[in-house]
Amino acid sequence: MRYSNKQYIMLIGQTILQNSYVDIGAHEKSMSTYVFSQVLPEKLEDVNQIVGAGTFGECHLKQYLRLGIRVVEKKLVESDLKLLYDEAYYMQLFSHRCVPHLIGIQTQIKPYSLITEFLGHGVESMTVYRLLFDAVFSEQKSRMLLPNWFRVCYDIVDAVHYIHQKEYLHCDLKSNNVLVSNQKGYLVDFGKVCKVRNPRAKKYKTVYPHSAPEVLNGDPVSKASDVFSYGKILKIIGEQLRNKELLSMGDKSF
Ligand SMILES: Nc1ncnc2c1ncn2[C@@H]1O[C@H](COP(=O)(O)OP(=O)(O)OP(=O)(O)O)[C@@H](O)[C@H]1O
Ligand SMILES: [Mg+2]
After folding, report:
1. How far is the CA of 53 from the centre of ligand 1 (A)?
2. Neighbours of ion ligand 2 (CB under 5 A)
3. An example Gene Ontology cellular component term from the record (predicted)?
4. Distance 73 CA to ligand 2 centre (A)
5. Whose CA is nearest to atom 27 of ligand 1?
């Protein structure tokens, strides 16, 4: 479905404000009853491309021979099964048009890994951050017109809203965790997800610009703190595009 810029602005605004919490109860499902598809390591062919590296490990681009598709293998440095199951569980629970599909998990050899559908440009992972600031993507950036950026912003708030409806929080919304593929936005990195009813709280020594000030001060994360971080994404895009609607929506989210 294609919307006009005005319609996108309305949709983004409405979705930020919407407060209809639907408890579908799926999150009550016990972890031990959840089944993940097992990916055999020998079916993952190396393409010699690292698409990202973060706190939890490296993300490698692979060819998944069984399905004949490109995938991302996120290798968890600590090979902590609980972390792996949690992230895999959330990716399945948050199955949405703007969240990459979970293909499965690999627990035969260490480091254990999470295998997801690859959403990128060629063999590169194109996050909002890289698209805005990395010269490698200057051509792709020049092709992104205002409606395409609005579309990406809407995709992300739609995914966040879906997660909030399920009574969960993403807790790590930032321009590095938003992918752009075929001019559509996708949310990644479910390593910090927690329940609205059981929010995490900790005092931070580092001031992360995408985190809400009360969270850095030790208050629990909340839907509002996710919206704050989302607003920062709107601001960073709005500043680059010098677009007053995105800047003003970004300001309203704080
Ligand atoms: N499905 C995917 N398709 C394309 N690129 C991806 C995909 N999943 C992850 N990436 C790339 O890998 C990077 C790291 O992934 P992710 O954010 O899940 O790891 P992380 O270790 O939790 O990162 P951090 O702690 O730095 O936020 C992402 O920023 C993105 O560039
Ligand atoms: Mg990340």
Report:
1. 7
2. 54, 177, 189
3. cytoplasm
4. 14
5. 54
CB 102 within 8 Å of CB 90: no
Residues 61 and 105 in one domain: yes
Evaluate if pTM is beyond 0.85. yes
| Residue 69 Cα to ligand 1 middle (Å) | 18
Residues at CB less than 6 angstroms from ligand 1: 51-52, 54-57, 59, 72, 74, 100, 116-120, 125, 127, 176-177, 179, 188-189, 191
Domain stop point among 117, 144, 168? 117
CATH number at residue 214: 1.10.510.10
- Domain end among 75, 94, 117: 117
List, for residues 13-72, the tens digit of each pLDDT value: 888 876 444 443 444 555 555 689 999 999 999 998 899 987 778 999 999 999 999 999
